Amino acid sequence: MKSTKIIFWVTTIIIFLFEGVMPALTSQTELAKEGIRHLGYPEYFGNALVVFKICGVLLLIIPTIPNRFKEWAYAGFAFDFIFASISHYAVDGIGFQVFFPLIFLVILILSYTSYHKLLSYKASH
């Protein structure tokens, strides 16, 4: 169970840093705004996305949040990564930008599966 906890916290903290902290600190930079424009989205979409990302990572990282809300956060991040990959493919074709969000999708899946292993362990003990 110790290894499951380690996997959960390492993967969840990676998601927290890359999907919460980094966007919160960089979302108003010209580079971030240009990235949203490059994909064809309006600027307000980027702002809304950052708000949802920050809310989502807080739901994942705070242990006392009910499971139902954590499930929605996991689903939201899964959609985010999938659609980010699709958006980059539609605009730029095949390249690293297409696969980068899918790497984070794998990390998210590891967090999600370890989270459920921890829940089932708690339920049985």
UniProtKB/TrEMBL annotation:
<dbReference type="Pfam" id="PF13564">
    <property type="entry name" value="DoxX_2"/>
</dbReference>
<dbReference type="InterPro" id="IPR032808">
    <property type="entry name" value="DoxX"/>
</dbReference>
<feature type="transmembrane region" description="Helical">
    <location>
        <begin position="72"/>
        <end position="90"/>
    </location>
</feature>
<protein>
    <recommendedName>
        <fullName>DoxX family protein</fullName>
    </recommendedName>
</protein>
<feature type="transmembrane region" description="Helical">
    <location>
        <begin position="7"/>
        <end position="25"/>
    </location>
</feature>
<keyword id="KW-0472">Membrane</keyword>
<keyword id="KW-0812">Transmembrane</keyword>
<dbReference type="GO" id="GO:0016020">
    <property type="term" value="C:membrane"/>
</dbReference>
<dbReference type="InterPro" id="IPR016944">
    <property type="entry name" value="UCP030066"/>
</dbReference>
<feature type="transmembrane region" description="Helical">
    <location>
        <begin position="96"/>
        <end position="115"/>
    </location>
</feature>
<feature type="transmembrane region" description="Helical">
    <location>
        <begin position="45"/>
        <end position="65"/>
    </location>
</feature>
<keyword id="KW-1133">Transmembrane helix</keyword>
